[in-house]
Amino acid sequence: MNALSLKKGASRKSAYDLKNPLDDRQETHTLAILVDNESGVLARVIGLFSGRGYNIDSLTVAETDHSGHRSRITVVTTGTPAVIEQIKAQLGRMVPVHDVHDLTVEGASVERELALVKVQGTGDKRVEALRISDVFRASVVDSTLESFVFQLTGAPEKIDAFIDLMRPLGLIDVARTGVAAISRGT
Amino acid sequence: MTRQMTGAKMVIQALKDQGVDTVFGYPGGAVLPIYDEIFKQNDIRHILVRHEQGATHAAEGYARSTGKPGVVLVTSGPGATNAVTGMTDALMDSIPMIVLTGQVPTFMIGNDAFQEADTVGITRPCTKHNWLVKDTDMLADTIHQAFHVATNGRPGPVLIDIPKDVQFATGTYVPPKEARVSHYAPQTEGDADMILAAVEAIEEAERPIFYTGGGVINSGPEASAVLRRFVGESGFPITSTLMGLGAYPASGEAWLGMLGMHGTYEANWAMHDCDLMLCIGARFDDRITGRTDAFSPGSVKVHVDIDPSSINKNIHVNIPIIGDVGAVLQAMYDLWVKRGRKTASEGVKAWWTQIESWKAVKSLNYTNSTETIKPQYALERLEALTKGRDRYVTTEVGQHQMWAAQFLGFEDPHRWMTSGGLGTMGYGLPASIGVQIAHPDALVINVAGEASWLMNMQEMGTAAQYRLPVKQFILNNERLGMVRQWQELLHGERYSQSWSEALPDFVKLAEAFGAKGILCSDPADLDDAIMEMLNHDGPVLFDCLVEKHENCFPMIPSGKAHNEMLLGDASTADAIDSGGAVLV
């Protein structure tokens, strides 16, 4: 049986550079979803992920255009290339969704997260925690004689690294905002 | 016309302005103001069902047989939750439906008030979109948007939850033309480059096949018309999913019959061996594909669908075309004509020779009997005795549904209403009511199994009340036939809970509802009994006692490929392995 040859005349837009369905590599993508800021919209988006078995690694949401009633949801998700494509298509067809941007593939982007890290300790450990926080350019937003609360912003990996370093120094609590992301340039 | 009115009146006004003539519903505390407005007018007809699920399926039947959205009105709490199955059914089968639910007053929401339920929360995953309206001034606008969303793009159910105080309060009505324009506008025109690629593939293909689905029906009569022209002039064979039956006529020369799990041998083998698959408004459902990694391995696949998320969801395709089926088909056809209607006709001729050899297997053959009525025979006779009539068919779910798809022929779209995606037992009776309401003079038959039929049998009261001459044609095997068949093939013939004990006397049951009951158990009496059913001007419950252990063939067992079909009982030993057994 001969396979039908596909003509090359068609555009590159989508037909022949589709994701390989047999590719089972797990990829992490950051999606920016612009939605109407209406009641239940976050539940709708989250429900899509849980209902169809997709992963949410991180999620942030806030209104970004008050007069236009628009919110921006930033989701970091992991899946095979085919699953990532499916997630984008499923999001794109939701009624309150205006736009879905895959920041991971649409050129360079900046990803930032904010963390509040509480560290308890005295003596050398306390000094070391403060010294490391300085290296990471974290700021102290609360202090007692036995504890600090550090505020740190940066890429998620930087925050991971900071938390790892604080662990042996008396880490007792972490609050992270999740990733906010935006494309570079115009 | 004054624009100031109560929310309840606004609902009626908005429905009128949207061209609604019929509402299927059931009253209750939280929708009393709307029912009061229904009482005061005559433009919109309200059909009182017996259960809210019945209202949703009736609305589906109405929608599927007319192409217009079906409208449902139910109360809060249990009214809304009872409608969930019908909404999920409509979502799976892309049926446009507007569901209006009452809600407890806004100031009581969240208080666990009487008949309160989080309706928008519960129905979020089973609607295309839903709204809770908290301000009467927003109500008309929301209703107009709901119609826009339900009927544009891939159709589906939407829900508007209206608290009782919003119904009582006065606000400003907005007619459809002045309503806020929704940004929801799915792409309808296909990409020109993709269409060119598809046409080039059509010109070269030696083993092409059209594989069409419910999207062709949803796209409207023009889509079916251009499909017929395209198939006719190209000489390509065509098969269809369960949902797409009637888009191309069953009497057409190129028709291979339905494909899929219980599709014909020729349709499935042609799908497996083709070199070009033209998937038009279908979605590569698991009932169609069988084992996906062995699905039509040698073909270039074109997929036309208005829903981008259908592309590459189950099957990787080569030429995706996002757009309205009718518009894209027309563009493909026009381009193909403009380029000279080329096909690889020699190859296609050889392909047809191959297909004829598959047809010769006669996969729908069954062993008839003079003792008992075979369900296939009953449907063959029903087909013969109703052919050429202005006929609409609904079904319940199970073996009878598959046999109906195999043995009844559909010549036109919108004539076949069945629960495909969700597989909802209890769909057929209320759906037949919705169809009959929309087509009062037509012959409407619900092909049913006794177990499915009992699931929404209360709707016989609706049929009686509105003097709807719906014919309930029950193939009664006193079994959950499809469950029994799977238990035979998969579970060592241990028939756990799959028989119908203590069945009612259906003739007496019909009479209790004020309908006519007919019992038939002898093949020799069947024609006369069917004619008696057809000639009766009123609802009929036809209890057709059929062979109890008949299996539905052909069948692609779970986890198998199209070329591993079972043709009959002799071939079923060890047909399904443990991997297939976990599939549904």
From TrEMBL, chain A:
Entry EC number(s): 2.2.1.6
Keywords associated with the record: Amino-acid biosynthesis, Branched-chain amino acid biosynthesis, Transferase
GO molecular function, one term: acetolactate synthase activity
Gene Ontology terms: biological process: isoleucine biosynthetic process; L-valine biosynthetic process
Catalytic activity: 2 pyruvate + H(+) = (2S)-2-acetolactate + CO2
Entry superkingdom: Bacteria
Cellular component terms per the entry's GO annotation: cytosol
Enzyme class: transferase
Residues annotated as domain ACT: 30-105
Protein's pathway: Amino-acid biosynthesis; L-isoleucine biosynthesis; L-isoleucine from 2-oxobutanoate: step 1/4; Amino-acid biosynthesis; L-valine biosynthesis; L-valine from pyruvate: step 1/4
Family named by the database record: Belongs to the acetolactate synthase small subunit family.
Function comment: Catalyzes the conversion of 2 pyruvate molecules into acetolactate in the first common step of the biosynthetic pathway of the branched-amino acids such as leucine, isoleucine, and valine.
Subunit structure: Dimer of large and small chains.
Name of the molecule in the record: Acetolactate synthase small subunit
Species of provenance: Oceanomicrobium pacificus
UniProt gene name: ilvN
Automatic annotation (TrEMBL), chain B:
Segments forming domain Thiamine pyrophosphate enzyme N-terminal TPP-binding: 5-120
Signal sequence extent: none
EC number: 2.2.1.6
Keyword Transferase: yes
Catalytic activity: 2 pyruvate + H(+) = (2S)-2-acetolactate + CO2
Ranges of residues in domain Thiamine pyrophosphate enzyme central: 197-332
Pathway(s) this gene product operates in, as recorded in its UniProt entry: Amino-acid biosynthesis; L-valine biosynthesis; L-valine from pyruvate: step 1/4; Amino-acid biosynthesis; L-isoleucine biosynthesis; L-isoleucine from 2-oxobutanoate: step 1/4
Transferase in keyword set: yes
Cofactors that this protein relies on: thiamine diphosphate; Mg(2+)
Domain of life: Bacteria
Cellular component, GO, one term: acetolactate synthase complex
Pfam families assigned: TPP_enzyme_C (PF02775), TPP_enzyme_M (PF00205), TPP_enzyme_N (PF02776)
Enzyme class: transferase
Molecular functions per Gene Ontology: acetolactate synthase activity; flavin adenine dinucleotide binding; magnesium ion binding; thiamine pyrophosphate binding
Residue ranges annotated for the Thiamine pyrophosphate enzyme TPP-binding domain, each copy included: 397-544
PANTHER family for this protein: ACETOLACTATE SYNTHASE CATALYTIC SUBUNIT, MITOCHONDRIAL (PTHR18968:SF13), THIAMINE PYROPHOSPHATE ENZYMES (PTHR18968)
Family: Belongs to the TPP enzyme family.
Protein name listed in UniProt: Acetolactate synthase
